[in-house]
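Below is a filled-in request sheet from our internal design queue. Each sheet records the structural input a requester submitted and the sequence that came back. We keep these sheets so that new team members can see what a complete request looks like end to end.

REQUESTER: design group, bay 2
PRIORITY: normal
MODE: inverse folding
CHAIN LENGTH: 254
BACKBONE (tokenized):
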């Protein structure tokens, strides 16, 4: 491994540690910081690709390592956060629901590794796992912030709880569906708004909550609206293309 590959790998490992720390924080009851760590992991996971392309340090090893980061930070961490903050109060049903988050993530990432030769560079088959991770972590963050009406914004019962958990169930189904999703830009210029929104989560509570709700709205639109406007190739076309040319290995976020 060259220094060009080591540098982006450092960002990838940092992303995994942030996801692991989120799991520990959820277990200790610090749900707000646990949600922030999931988003920080997502930011670091995006940085590794930009850095790798900038210094020409992309590698197959980095792409494979990134898959395990995704499972830790965007599969296990949000499932643990959802369970510890809300779902554990519903007994077996809560356990099964949080387990479904993990299982859907495992199936989505496993299929991604074997069926997409371009590793998400030309769109995705199924909803990216990061969308559900954002959705869960940001709504937990908002409710834990205590800025908004407690009863209206509760995740245990009420209209918001119905919206959040029904949408989560749909996200889990979409993750393992054949619906095609466009690849969000990972170019540095397009990545700057993502950096800002995550940074806002660590500022005063009013700014942080507004940023979290904006992220939730973006997740909802991406999951349910963008498939109506396809701008990407069908997976069968990608497989055919892969037989003719070797795709460039990159760091990516499924």
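RETURNED SEQUENCE:
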């Amino acid at each position: 491994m060259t220094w060009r590959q080591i540098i982006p790998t450092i960002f990838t490992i940092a992303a995994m540690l942030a996801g692991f720390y989120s799991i520990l924080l959820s277990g200790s009851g610090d749900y707000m910081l646990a949600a922030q760590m999931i988003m920080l992991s997502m930011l670091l996971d995006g940085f590794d690709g930009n850095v790798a392309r900038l210094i020409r340090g992309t590698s197959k090893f980095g792409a494979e390592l990134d898959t395990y980061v995704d499972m830790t930070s965007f599969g296990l961490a949000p499932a643990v956060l959802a369970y510890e903050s809300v779902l554990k109060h519903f007994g077996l049903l809560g356990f099964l629901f949080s387990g479904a988050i993990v299982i859907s993530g495992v199936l989505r990432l496993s299929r991604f590794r074997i069926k997409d030769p371009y590793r998400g560079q030309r769109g995705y088959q199924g909803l990216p796992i990061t969308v559900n991770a954002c959705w869960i972590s940001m709504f937990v963050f908002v409710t834990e912030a205590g800025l908004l009406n407690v009863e209206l914004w509760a995740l245990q019962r009420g209209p918001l709880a119905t919206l959040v958990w029904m949408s989560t169930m749909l996200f889990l189904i979409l993750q393992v569906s054949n619906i095609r999703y466009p690849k969000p830009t990972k170019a540095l210029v397009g990545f700057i708004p993502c950096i800002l929104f995550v940074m806002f989560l660590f500022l005063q509570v009013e700014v942080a909550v507004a940023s979290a709700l904006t992220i939730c709205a973006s997740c909802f639109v991406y999951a349910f609206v963008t498939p109506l406007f396809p701008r990407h190739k069908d997976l069968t076309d990608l497989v055919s293309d892969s037989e003719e040319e070797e795709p460039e290995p990159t760091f990516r976020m499924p």
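SHEET NOTES:
- The domain at 3-242 is CATH 1.20.120 (Four Helix Bundle (Hemerythrin (Met), subunit A)).
- The chain has one domain: 3-242.
FILED BY: M.R.
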